[in-house]
Input
Amino acid sequence: ETKNTDLILLDYEMPGENGKVVLEKIRKMPFGANTPVVFLSGVRDANIIQQNVLLKPSGYLLKPVSKVQLLGKIKEILS
Output
């Protein structure tokens, strides 16, 4: 909360909370409304992906993701 964040790469499956819950919390923070968030996840369940897309992340990349694809998405968002 105290650092300037250009972009967040967020996994869906994490210990304790999933990415959807974390993104909802980020969006409620003062910096969170304007910070780009990209899901980087191995979750391929269409229902889960749809729920996450409804939160309007800046992107959703499926693992495994190539370095070129990841850097391309980051460049696209930050340009």
